[in-house]
Design a protein that fits this description.
The complex is a heterodimer of chains A (about 575) and B (about 350). Helix content of chain A is about 75%, strand content about 0%. Chain A contains 24 helices and 3 strands. A two-stranded parallel ribbon of chain A has the order 1-2. The longest helix of chain A is centred in the last third of the chain and has 35 residues. The radius of gyration of chain A is 24 Å and the shape is globular. The two termini of chain A are about 30 Å apart. Chain B is α/β, with parallel strands linked by helices and about 350 residues long. Chain B is about 40% helix and about 15% strand. Chain B contains 11 helices and 10 strands. In chain B, strands 1, 2, 3, 4, 5, 6, 7, 8, 9 and 10 form a 10-stranded mixed sheet that branches. In chain B, helix 3 packs parallel to helix 4 and helix 6 packs across helix 11. The longest helix of chain B has about 30 residues. The chains are: A mainly alpha (about 575), B alpha/beta (about 350). Chains A and B meet through helix 6, helix 10, helix 11, helix 15 and helix 18 of A and helix 1, strand 2, helix 3, strand 7 and helix 7 of B.
Chain lengths: ~575, ~350
């Protein structure tokens, strides 16, 4: 076969076969997001602005002229920026220690750091108030119901996102560039600043935009830890919708929230597009080294962070879960998990709810992986046509929106749209199928932001070379993209699974037939009187934490199998 | 991902799809039989959907009894808390989530009635003693259970300090009780809303905001929800708590018994109580209105009413249904309550809440 033959052949498939393939790869996620995200949100906003069919924009003026609204916008931004900054400051050194250093127990610490990510906000509220409250170990700081408490809790949740996203990239950065710089006489800080960090920018901006969205739309944590002085657009939407059913006001706030989020994302996307380039990637373990003397300050710092931010609140939960009703200590709360609570306060035992949670999370992960995987694949290619590039940029932004739109808006939107949608013979709202779907919608951005930096880092010349040598597009995917992406896929699976397992917002705003998930059960237990119910809520939270940590440990292992499985 | 998981997941999807189809078959037959509603002809609905708040509990035995008696399959669909339930019912007026509902409380009752979500139905099973809970003359809503939101005090804490616990709303603003009270945000908590209405009933619409301001001046703390206040700040509910006065329920003292179970360490201040009543009703546009009425009747029946106190921590409206012994001993009902008439709640609810937010909640 001559070179011109190969080129002609490539042209042919790039016009016909590839077109169809990429068309499907784009259509599936776009349809999914259109039906299960855009439609419900638009429906609720329309209901707010045009309750009787006639458009009424007067609520816009009302809401936007209230000083309270702008105070909330300011608080939302301040809290999101501070939360993101602290998460990065803590997360980046932690990523270094957990992904570039080799030491015993590293896998366990990696899994541990992810645990907060899935704890229900109610539980985190309890844990933080237990630590910071006037009677708690850090009560003397006077931080209860303060801005600092909110930011600390946001960091508690989101350090995991930074560690995982940045760490996943860092561990595969070819260390030779750094070694060369060191040899040429650069100090470690200079190497970090001029060689390492620039190469981490894609992962850093990826992580920062996800964390920013999580912080900007944080809801339970702000409600519990902020008291009456601190609120965000999100908590206000909750109050207006759930307490007052003032849909016009909620609609204006939803639009306002969207504007804030879109502007923030546009800035992040700009930064990302310019920096997400092909990098020299190495095998994961190749880049890690044993703890050297020079690493000790970082290790000490990270240990202190982890102790303060992760161990203290979770230890509080464990301690409380072991405190049995009537004083004293013991495993009573754990044995009670096999029951339906004090005087059968629950419709199912906690173990049954746990099993239901796992089933739901599995389904959600599968959906998120398919949708998010396709999106990443589409976004990782650089089309030549300008319009196509623009469309790609749009998709890149839209796929992030589920993290930035209020769970209340989506949940209530589902109620409006999912009654016999598209003439289906069933009322989807009451089947329970929407729960994994809603969880997947939230997990898709995480999958994309985990897979995409890795896929984009693949040198496009590798793919071109494969194609020139006669590989079909499917073969290029299988032999070039897959082996590299598979290692990140384990991480994406773990992330999506953890996010689904801990998801509370959207799940609690949907209607549920029969079975319910663990975070919802914990919330129900906390809402009932009785020391035993409280103890069970603590024990169930610990169980959720352990299950999550185990899942993350397994996901770490999965990454090794990726290449073999294909 | 292992093949095993994949197989299980696809099995789950297949099952769900099958279930969906099954439901679909039911609902389409419902539609065709709608004109002949009431007749037990073939093709009449075989299921009834009950939408409930997330504190709803029904035993398997009671559920089976209903299904046997009525010949219908009971589907329980859980919405969120009471406020979410009420608002979801209003939002889905054109396409109701079920046939009947349970769990809308008196602070939201008038909202669902005014929104036209309800098909009025007065059950023959409604005890006459429950007449005082009626929301309107049409009998739109059926009271099923009630309880009281009251200030609770940690009597053990006050004994240890050799202090007299507060005994009224007014006491809470006195200097000797400075920094001792934790309250609930009425815009995010339903017992919080009930307590706000109690202060409005007691101090009047002119006086309640002034009272709240004085409460805050006296060092009262406001938490976003009941569990947060009770389990984090209240000395009677948490070993790390520092506030011996909290807004909770009149039944809470029955959950704080000492080890011997012969006395309780906390008490409700009975002059500060507000009734919280939970209602059931038939949804307008129900696919199975006859089934909806049957389930409302059943919720008032002896069997279900006897389960209410244990499962939902509320008093059944049927007096013969009974409550746990510990309630009789340690959780007496208040003789008088501070209640706002339903019509006033309907007219002013949103206004009161936003006035409160502007005056206190910032």
């Amino acid at each position: 076969m001559t070179l011109t033959d190969a080129a002609r052949r490539r042209d042919r498939w790039s016009v016909a076969g590839t077109g169809v393939g990429w068309g499907i790869a784009t259509a599936v996620p776009v349809l999914f997001l259109a039906v299960f995200f855009v439609w419900p949100v638009v429906a609720l906003v329309v209901k707010g602005f045009a309750p009787d069919g006639a458009l009424d924009l007067s609520p816009f003026v009302d809401v936007l002229t209230k000083p309270r609204t702008w105070r909330l916008v300011g608080l939302t931004l301040a809290q999101a920026v501070a939360g993101t900054a602290v998460s990065l400051l803590v997360g980046v050194p932690t990523a270094y220690v957990l992904y570039r250093l080799r030491f015993r127990g590293r896998g366990v610490v990696r899994a541990w750091v992810t645990v907060p990510f899935v704890l229900p906000t109610v539980v985190v509220g309890v844990a933080f108030r237990a630590v910071l409250g006037e009677g708690g170990p850090l009560g003397f700081l006077g931080l209860d119901q303060s801005f600092v408490a909110i930011v600390a809790a946001l960091a508690f949740f989101n350090v995991a996102v930074v560690v995982r996203t940045v760490g996943g990239m860092w561990e595969r950065l070819d260390p030779r560039a750094e070694q060369a710089a060191r040899t040429l006489g650069a100090g470690p800080l200079r190497v970090l600043r001029t060689v390492t960090l620039p190469r981490l920018v894609p992962a850093l901006t990826s992580a920062a935009s996800v964390v920013f969205l999580f912080c900007a739309t944080a809801f339970g944590v702000v409600l519990v830890l902020g008291g009456r002085r601190f609120g965000t657009i999100e908590t206000e939407i909750y109050r207006q919708t759930v307490q007052l059913l003032d849909l016009p006001t909620a609609a204006v706030l939803s639009v306002l929230q969207l504007v804030v989020i879109v502007v923030a994302l546009a800035v992040a996307a700009r930064a990302r597009r310019h920096r997400e380039n092909a990098l020299e990637l190495a095998a994961a373990e190749q880049a890690a080294h044993r703890v050297a003397r020079g690493d000790l300050p970082v290790v000490g710092l990270v240990a202190a962070f982890v102790l303060l931010l992760h161990v203290l609140p979770i230890a509080t939960l464990v301690v409380r879960s072991l405190r049995v009703p009537g004083g004293g200590w013991g495993p009573g709360n754990y044995t009670a998990l096999g029951t339906r609570g004090q005087r059968d306060a629950l419709t199912a035992t906690v173990w049954e709810a746990g099993a239901a949670s796992l089933r739901t999370a599995l389904m959600a992960t599968l959906i998120a992986l398919v949708v998010g995987g396709l999106v990443s694949l589409v976004l990782s290619r650089s089309p030549r046509a300008r319009a196509a590039r623009r469309a790609r940029g749009l998709l890149d932004g839209v796929v992030m929106l589920p993290l930035g739109v209020s769970a209340v808006t989506v949940g209530f939107g589902f109620l409006l749209t999912m009654d016999h949608p598209f003439g289906l013979p069933t009322d989807l709202r009451t089947t329970g199928l929407l729960i994994p779907v809603a969880q997947a919608v939230v997990a898709v951005p995480l999958v994309v932001r985990t897979l995409l930096p890795v896929l984009r880092a693949i040198d496009p010349r590798l793919r071109q070379a494969a194609a020139v040598l006669g590989a079909s597009p499917g073969r290029v995917l299988g032999t070039v993209d897959w082996p590299i992406a598979a290692r990140a896929a384990g991480l994406a699976i773990g992330f999506a699974f953890a996010a689904s397992l801990g998801e509370f917002g959207a799940t609690s705003f949907l209607v549920r037939p029969g079975s319910t998930t663990l975070p919802v059960v914990i919330y129900q237990l906390l809402g009932r009187p009785g020391a035993q119910n409280y103890g069970m809520a603590m024990a169930a939270s610990v169980v959720l934490a352990v299950v999550t940590a185990s899942v993350m440990l397994v996901a770490e292992r999965l990454r090794g199998y990726g290449t073999r499985e294909f | 991902m292992s093949r095993n998981t994949r197989a299980r997941t696809s099995a789950a999807v297949a099952l769900a799809a099958a279930a969906a189809l099954g439901l679909g078959a039911c609902s389409s037959s419902d539609a065709s039989s709608a004109p002949a509603a009431g007749g037990a002809t073939s093709g009449s609905p075989t299921t009834v959907n009950l939408v409930v708040h997330d504190s709803f509990v029904i035993s398997d035995a009671a559920k089976a009894a209903f299904e046997k008696e009525s010949g219908l399959t009971l589907n329980v669909v859980t919405s969120g808390d009471g406020g979410q339930l009420a608002n979801q019912l209003v939002l889905t007026k054109d396409a109701p989530l079920g046939d009947a509902f349970f769990g809308v409380d008196n602070s939201y009752a008038t909202r669902v009635v005014q929104a036209g979500v309800i098909e009025p139905y007065t059950s023959a099973a409604l005890p006459t003693s429950a007449a005082r809970f009626a929301v309107d003359d049409a009998g739109s809503l059926t009271p099923i259970d009630y309880g009281d939101v009251c200030v609770n005090v940690d009597t053990a804490w006050f004994d240890k300090k050799k202090l007299t616990p507060p005994a009224s709303y007014e006491d809470l603003t006195k200097p000797e009780y400075q920094d001792l009270t934790v309250l609930l945000d009425p815009t995010s908590s339903s017992p919080g809303t009930a307590f706000l209405f109690g202060t409005i009933a007691h101090f009047g619409t002119d006086g309640y905001l002034d009272y709240w301001t004085r409460l805050l001046d006296n060092g009262a703390k406001i938490d976003s929800g009941w569990s947060d206040a009770y389990y984090s700040d209240y000395t009677g509910g948490s070993e790390d708590g520092t506030y011996p006065v909290v807004v909770s329920y009149n039944t809470s003292p029955a959950e704080t018994l000492d080890e011997a179970g012969t006395s309780t360490t906390t008490a409700a201040v009975l002059s500060t109580c507000t009734d919280q009543v939970e209602y059931a009703g038939v949804l307008a546009g129900a696919k199975n209105p006859e089934g909806a009425k049957k389930i409302v009747d059943f919720l008032l029946g002896q069997e279900f009413q006897s389960e209410i106190a244990a499962g939902m921590y509320m008093y059944p409206v049927l007096e013969s249904a009974g409550v746990p012994d510990s309630w009789t001993s340690f959780a007496p009902l208040p003789a008088t309550t501070n209640d706002v008439p339903a019509a006033d709640i309907a007219a002013h609810r949103d206004e009161w809440l936003s006035d409160w937010s502007d005056a206190v909640g910032q």
